[in-house]
């Protein structure tokens, strides 16, 4: 009897709590969108898979619509799903949706200091300062372009040293990419074997992976509880501490030989501003914001771009027709025919005695063996569709409707000079491939959490000031109203019928609106220059067949982290 009484009390309290949480958004000055009913303390944890947070959230939107409320523990967050909802909020009401939302795993380290995790006036001042200073140190100018070109050549050299042996590109790519932001922030690049640099990059990698793991997600939902529970998430904070020490050490070094008349880098400029405002108690320029801002630029500028490049390698090997491993072929004797569908019909070429010579990219294939290579190669990598046209009475030419990156590099840039940013406008296919890669991988699938700066009417709801907002960027990239067949990799998403580059407003890997990624321009330059420079010199050879390449992220949380892989690079 006593037991059933206790159970009754517990159940009644539970029901009241659920009712309270569910109605909370409807009362007072706020009216949050409806969503799944939360449990006490757990919130909606049982409806979420912390290993695939983005997909769980997208799945719930099928039931609750494109704008709904989810409870992460006891914290209500408004989820925005699909292009229309994200655009209406982050673009059309850009100011109202420009605060940073709760992000406990970062907050324990930053305490709201630095650009990425501050809000209000402090964020505006720090962001303006960072943009201006980065511009002064060459961002958007030819000096940073030259720097990326040089670093890309260093990477080519390192790749060349592998001599065609298999290797994992993670460390090399990370060093090259990080060196670009190092020049802006620390005024110097690091040698690829520098021990401090390697340790630092290891901490970055480790943190991106851990924060994207289930442990990182659970920490964001239950920070206080997770502080007490053992687990690998504690490593995140140890790594942060070492990063803090490294950055603080560099800053001390700068303080020793700072010349206010001749700042060398971002840190010098910040130190000068600190000195100018040292008597202002309201100044945002102090040591903590310098360390955290440096960390934001360093982390943001390293992990994101290098992970995108690594994923690019994997995708180009998975879909080799994009990289251009299939090139033009021609017959010595005439063959009259016309094919509209590949690959089945193309395999028929193997039986055409007239086809005697073919190239893959710019590589001449063995005279008799090429069609056999095609025969093993095509079924694995080509999506069905009218990819090839075979025509002409005296010449068999098959070409991909979408041009190919290797071919475009050879035609527009050639082999005698390094790729430069001015080439971009003449390389619509490459541009389309790069954007399609960023769309397809949706590197930060949930962006970074936002919050509303004031009580904000949105659709039929009213979000109280400070409400957390999750813009589900991956749902925009996979929105079928914006991209045809979004789950397939298809550069045609960014090409028009004349094969010219076609932009799409639903392309938002850097998140849209007032808080758009501060390094978006730099990242796009780096991705283009690094990738074209590598593809100009090498073809990427997977260690397994394209069909066996698995693009599923190793973990999905803060970021989509690709599975570790090895490959060979062969000189072209
Ligand atoms: C492929 C590369 C990159 C991707 C996909 C990416 C993506 C993003 C995203 C989605 C955000 C969140 C924006 C929001 O608040 O909604 C962000 C913020 C940020 N990113 Fe990037 N990023 C990349 C490269 C970089 C680089 C190279 C830098 C370094 C200069 C950088 C620095 C930052 C900073 C400082 C913020 C915080 C901005 C703020 O809160 O005002 N990112 N990035």
TrEMBL record:
Pfam families with a match to the protein in the record: p450
Topology in the lipid bilayer: Peripheral membrane protein
Gene3D superfamilies with a match to the protein in the record: Cytochrome P450
A Gene Ontology molecular function term of the record: heme binding
Domain of life: Eukaryota
Residues reported in the UniProt entry to bind heme: 517
InterPro entries xrefs: Cyt_P450 (IPR001128), Cyt_P450_CYP2_fam (IPR020469), Cyt_P450_E_grp-I (IPR002401), Cyt_P450_sf (IPR036396), Cytochrome_P450_fam2 (IPR050182)
Similarity field: Belongs to the cytochrome P450 family.
Record-given protein name: Cytochrome P450 2F5-like
Highest classification ranks of the organism: Eukaryota, Metazoa, Chordata, Craniata, Vertebrata
């Amino acid at each position: 009897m006593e037991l059933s009484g206790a159970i009754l009390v517990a159940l009644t309290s539970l029901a009241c709590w659920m009712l309270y949480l569910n109605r909370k958004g409807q009362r007072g000055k706020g009216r949050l969108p409806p969503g799944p009913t939360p449990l006490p303390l757990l919130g909606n944890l049982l409806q979420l898979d912390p290993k695939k947070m983005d997909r769980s959230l997208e799945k719930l939107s099928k039931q609750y619509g494109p704008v709904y409320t989810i409870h992460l523990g006891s914290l209500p967050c408004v989820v925005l799903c699909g292009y229309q909802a994200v655009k209406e909020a982050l673009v059309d009401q850009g100011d109202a949706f420009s605060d940073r939302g709760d992000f406990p795993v970062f907050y324990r380290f930053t305490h709201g200091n630095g650009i990425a995790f501050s809000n209000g006036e402090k964020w505006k001042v720090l962001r303006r300062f960072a943009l201006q200073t980065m511009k002064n140190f060459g961002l958007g100018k030819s000096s940073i372009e030259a720097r990326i070109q040089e670093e890309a050549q260093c990477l080519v050299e390192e790749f060349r040293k592998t001599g065609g042996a298999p290797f994992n590109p993670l460390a090399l790519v990370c060093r090259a990419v990080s060196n670009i932001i190092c020049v802006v922030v620390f005024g110097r690049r690091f040698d690829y074997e520098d021990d401090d640099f390697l340790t630092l990059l290891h901490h970055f990698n480790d943190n991106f992976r851990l924060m994207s793991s289930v442990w990182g997600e659970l920490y964001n939902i239950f920070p206080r509880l997770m502080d007490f529970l053992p687990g690998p998430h504690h490593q995140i904070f140890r790594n942060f501490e070492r990063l803090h020490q490294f950055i603080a050490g560099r800053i001390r070094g700068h303080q020793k030989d700072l010349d206010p008349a001749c700042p060398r880098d971002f840190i010098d400029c910040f130190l000068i501003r600190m000195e100018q405002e040292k008597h202002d108690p309201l100044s945002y320029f102090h040591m903590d914001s310098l360390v955290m801002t440096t960390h934001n630029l360093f982390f943001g500028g390293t992990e994101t771009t290098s992970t995108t490049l690594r994923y690019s390698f994997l995708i180009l090997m998975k879909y080799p027709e994009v990289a251009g491993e299939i090139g033009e072929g021609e017959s010595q004797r005439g063959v009259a025919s016309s094919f509209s569908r590949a690959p089945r019909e193309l395999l028929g070429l193997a039986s055409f005695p007239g086809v005697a010579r073919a190239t893959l990219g710019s590589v001449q294939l063995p005279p008799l063996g090429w069609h056999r290579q095609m025969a093993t190669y095509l079924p694995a990598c080509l999506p069905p569709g009218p990819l090839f046209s075979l025509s002409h009475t005296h010449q068999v030419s098959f070409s991909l409707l979408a041009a190919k990156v290797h071919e475009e590099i050879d035609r527009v840039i050639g082999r005698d000079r390094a790729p430069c940013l001015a080439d971009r406008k003449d390389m619509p296919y490459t541009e389309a491939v790069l954007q399609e890669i960023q769309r397809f991988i949706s590197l930060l699938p949930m962006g970074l959490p936002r919050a509303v700066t004031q009580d904000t009417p949105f659709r039929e709801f009213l979000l109280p000031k400070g409400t957390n907002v999750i813009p589900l960027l991956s749902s925009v990239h996979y929105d079928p109203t914006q991209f045809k067949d979004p789950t397939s990799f298809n550069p045609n998403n960014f090409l028009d019928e004349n094969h010219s580059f076609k932009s799409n407003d639903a392309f938002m890997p850097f998140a849209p609106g007032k808080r758009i990624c501060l390094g978006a321009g730099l990242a796009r330059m780096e991705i283009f220059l690094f990738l074209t420079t590598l593809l100009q010199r090498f073809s990427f050879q997977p260690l397994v067949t394209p069909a066996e390449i698995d693009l599923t992220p190793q973990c999905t949380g803060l970021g989509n982290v690709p599975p570790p892989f090895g490959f060979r690079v062969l000189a072209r």
